[in-house]
Amino acid sequence: MLQTPKKLMTLTLSAVLLAACGGADPGPAPSLPANPEGRPVFVNYWAEWCAPCREEIPELNEFAAANRGRMVLYGVNFDAASGDELRRQELALGIEFPTLEVDPGIALGLPLPMVLPVTRVLDGDGKLITQLAGVQTLATLEEALALALEEGEKQP
Questions:
Q1: 113 in a domain, yes or no?
Q2: Domain for residue 124, yes or no?
Q3: Fewest CB within 10 angstroms: 36, 53, 116, 121, which?
């Protein structure tokens, strides 16, 4: 169906105006907190309803306490809970490491995990080294840290 020039101009102008109404630019997606020491970063995805997540949290707490200063561990709530609800869930699960309110995966070019729990191991620059799926133990987390530290030594 042919449009008259007046209709075509009206449609074009409408499209331009609608595109301009997109609101303010939200800026870049949130990334990981600053890591000036370049330590390996572990990002653990968890959910309150996830039984395997509940099982591994004590191991993650122990790992974080034993390796403070060698690496950084953050949690990400899979259901994007925030504020008081996030704090309630952290307390209910006994999480002793910081949980980020916004998933840094988007800014890092990583998709949301398809299974839980998942722990992503990143180098000091935020590059994915490995991804650990399923319940992790202190031993498997220590192995991943050794790999991450080894990778860090290879970088100039």
A1: yes
A2: yes
A3: 36
pTM (predicted TM-score): 0.80
- Contact (Cβ atoms closer than 8 angstroms) between residue 86 and residue 124: no
Token pair 């970063």: residue: 41
Q: How far is CA 22 from CA 29, 67, 104, 106, in A?
A: 17, 45, 24, 21
What residues does 130 pair with on adjacent strands?
121
Most confident of the ranges 8-12, 20-24, 53-57: 53-57
In a domain, 146, yes or no: yes
The CATH number that applies at residue 150 is 3.40.30.10
pLDDT digit string (tens) for 98-146? Answer: 999 999 998 899 999 999 999 999 998 899 999 999 999 999 999 999 9
Select from 100, 103, 113, 97 the least CA-distant residue to 57. 97
| Residue 47 backbone dihedrals phi, psi, to 5 degrees | -145, 150
Count other C-beta atoms under 10 Å from residue 130's C-beta.
13
Domain extent for 96: 41-154
